[in-house]
Amino acid sequence: MKHLRKNRKFGRLADYRKTFLWNLVNNLILKERIRTTKTRAKEIRKIVERAISRAKKDTVSNRRLLSKKLEPKAVVKLFKDIAPKYVSRNGGYTKVFKINTRKNDAAEMVLIEFVK
Q: How far is 40 from 43, CA to CA, in rounded Å?
């Protein structure tokens, strides 16, 4: 049974999976729109939503917690550009658009971007 299974494994060990997901989050923050598979987008959406919620309160502890996982450029952009847009919003900072499937393995591809 699949009770209490909260995340997808992507065929990777835990430390590689965490690094892989945070790299996707870095790219989303820096580029503000990325093209990826549906399952990856669903998984990084959780991480991005939590990061933006944390960045809405600009404190030293929040900066340090996010700078552990994110690149310095991504942290600066998150606190200066992205988080101030969503101060009055209580969640739902990203949206996912379906696009065509990938040719070689027919994976569902999506665009994930920030809500404007």
A: 5
